[in-house]
Amino acid sequence: MNGDRVRREREFHEQRSAGRSGGLSEEELRFEDAVYLDHETWVRDTFALLGDLRGKRVLDYGAGEGLSSVVLARRGARVVSFDIASGNVRLTARRARANGVPLHLAQMAGEALALRDGAFDAVYGNAVLHHVDLDRAGAELRRVLRPGGVAVFSEPWGENPVLEFVRRRVPYRGKDRTPDERPLRLADVARLKARMPLAEVRGYQLLSMVRRQVGWRPLVAFLEGVDAVLLRLFPGLWRWCRYAVIILRKEGA
Fold first, then answer.
1. Of 21, 30, 175, 229, which alpha carbon lies 20 to 30 A from 92's?
2. pLDDT tens for residues 162-177?
3. What does pTM read for this prediction?
4. Percent helix, strand and coil across the chain, each rounded to 5?
5. Distance between CA atoms of 133 and 137, rounded to whole angstroms?
């Protein structure tokens, strides 16, 4: 594993999470599922791709502040939740208690999962693969998934040259990032497919990517409708989207 990369990622996310774990009241930590499921256009679809979670073992891969872990548990999954930052793990523990759901929690890196082989029916991750070494992470995902298991990730996508220019050159709010992260591209998906050939990618937010900076809901809703039509008529346009949902299935029963 690239120890320097992991160290930089941990330091960045420890700094971001510092103070969050104790800075919210129990009331503030409680939330309805829709708060998480509707915060971006792809989230409900990613949960639907996981299927019926009742009684299944699910790994929340890089859980961040823990909202996804709570929603997974509410859907009946037996959830193992991990993050690279101890502050996020503490916050997730508090959020689980506030919402009355059980979670198994751990602090670790996505490239080195201290978990047994074939332990999980499904893996969920949101904006995390672009932080890790994909070759090592892909091997670990394959190892911990049972045969026939599925991993679903939503990730920033990097095949739109205009969007990439903006990401690199134009200042905007929420732009802070780690030194090593970058949006995924087709070559990165190929690296994952080398480990799990049964892979699929779907694009989200073509024109409606402006919602990141534009708060006028009527315009955003109109552009989301246009996106739905364009992506249905011209499926290849998914490569120009802001985000991609990556579905990885492990061969077997």
1. 175
2. 999 988 887 766 667 8
3. 0.94
4. 45, 20, 35
5. 6
